[in-house]
Amino acid sequence: MTASAPRIVHIGGAHPYTISIGEGLLDDGSALTARIRGRHVLIVSDEHVAPLFARRVEIALHNARPDLRVDRFVIPPGEQAKTLARFGDAIDALAALGATRDACVLALGGGVVGDLAGFAAACWMRGIDCIQLPTSLLAMVDSSVGGKTAVDLPQGKNLVGAFHPPRAVFADPSALDTLPERELRAGLSEVIKYGAIVDAPFLDWLEANAAPLLAREREALVEAIARSCLHKATIVEHDPFEHGERALLNFGHTFGHAIEAEQGYSGAGNDALNHGEAVAVGMVLATRLSAHLGMAPAADAERLRALLTLYGLPTTLPAGLDADRLIQRMRLDKKAHAAGLRFVLWERAGAARIVDGVPEDAVLETLLEG
Ligand SMILES: NC(=O)c1ccc[n+]([C@@H]2O[C@H](COP(=O)([O-])OP(=O)(O)OC[C@H]3O[C@@H](n4cnc5c(N)ncnc54)[C@H](O)[C@@H]3O)[C@@H](O)[C@H]2O)c1
Ligand SMILES: O=C(O)C(=O)C[C@@H](O)[C@H](O)[C@H](O)COP(=O)(O)O
Ligand SMILES: [Zn+2]
Question: Can you tell me the ipTM of this complex?
Answer without folding.
Answer: 0.99
